Fold:
Amino acid sequence: MSFTFNPDYMAQDLLALARGAADFLAPRSLVRVERLTTNLRNAVANAKAGGQASFAWRTDADAPIQVRASKSWKGGTDDFDPIAADIRLDYACQFLPATGRVKIKGVAVIVIRDIGGGGEKVVHFDVDEGGWSEVVNGQPVHRAGHPPFHAQFYGVLNDIPRMPSLIVYPVDVINFAILELHQKNWRQHVESFQAKSQLRNFPPRQRERLAAILQCWSGTVCNPDFHPLVAMQRPFGEPLSF
Structure:
């Protein structure tokens, strides 16, 4: 199921993470994040002024947010071939004037690149409605079951598996990519005074988001009316608010 977010918090957390993780991101990434936040703020301001309430919010096609190459992606040593990552966001958004929040649906894509070998792995973090049926021309149509929040892996065979996920919020996807590539160094960095002062409100907000998603998944699998794994393909009872 799609969720709603506070646009000010989204912009603040994007900028806080980009600045706090500057040593882990490619040089142009901060500018690209700033452009992303500016586009969001402009779209919301336009909607508040009576303009289009629905808008696309995405990274530029040729300008992904990039994580620097790392050799420590397996843990505490630097003995592995370097890999880097590109992150692209592509969301359909709707401003909700009654609350000032934004409803979101779409995908964040991480492309993990092997610098030496040239291979890549593509992971989609999807925000969807969930469920296995929809109404087309007044008739119910059954489709593949997509958990409302899920990760999909692309390769020779696309779209499957669709793994239920905690990682769906755009800033959390970027954070996840940084952690995956820069295992030991990121864990050490976030404990530093400098990082804590730059990340500011991002960690407690992330904690609240993950706890809320966990609570939703818990309620889903504990529903006695459905088989637990089947239940995880159903929409949540109500949209989450971040």
Remarks:
- The mean pLDDT is 89.
- The chain has one domain: 3-231.
- The radius of gyration is 19 Å.
